[in-house]
Amino acid sequence: MVTAYLLYPNVVKFVSSMIIIDNNYFKQLILSKMTNEIDLRQNTGKRTIRTYWIITVITMALIILPSYFAPKEYLIETIKKLQFPDYFPLELDILKIVGAIVILIPAIPTMFKEWAYVGFGILLLSASLAHGVVDGFVKGVAPLVPFALLAVSYYYFRKLNYEK
């Protein structure tokens, strides 16, 4: 320690101060856990709500909008290539819209929202598998981007609705 202090005095002081800060932080954390006090210096509730809504709206847009903005010929060709029936795109669009409505409207009970998240998860993982097998790895990775955002949205959904 003495050699390090002689060679790098500022680094040693910085590291020592970090250890003291961390030590005080852990003391405060342990005391707050023992007394069930919550540090209210930062308003994490509003930040959590804001983050949930931003991520959720982006996720729903990424799931729903591509089927409306992609060229019709491309969608028909992809459905044929994946060997799905002709009515499948209509069914998929209806269920996507219903699921998005269920997730985005706050008055709908959380149980229905949970099932909508499950449905979107199955949809995106199935899409990833189908496109990965038929079209190759790169097309199979594309549905995993909204799936990752859906997972983040679901994390915040659970945080807002079940952690009290």
Describe it.
The protein has 164 residues and is mostly helical. The chain folds into two domains: 2-35; 44-162. It is 82% helix and 0% strand. It has nine helices and no strands. The chain starts with a helix and ends with a helix. Residues 1-8, 14-22 and 33-42 have low confidence and may be disordered.
Can you tag this structure with a few keywords?
2 domains, disordered N terminus, 164 residues
Topology:
Layout: H1 2-7, H2 9-35, H3 44-64, H4 66-69, H5 72-81, H6 88-104, H7 110-135, H8 137-141, H9 144-162
Helix pairs in contact: 3-6, 3-9, 6-7, 7-9
What's the short version?
This protein has helices at residues 2-7, 9-35, 44-64, 66-69, 72-81, 88-104, 110-135, 137-141, 144-162. With 164 residues, the chain is mainly α.
Oligomer: single chain
Number of domains: 2
What coarse outline follows from CA principal-axis ratios? Answer: elongated
Number of strands: 0
β-strand amount: under 5%
Measured distance between first and last alpha carbons: 46 Å
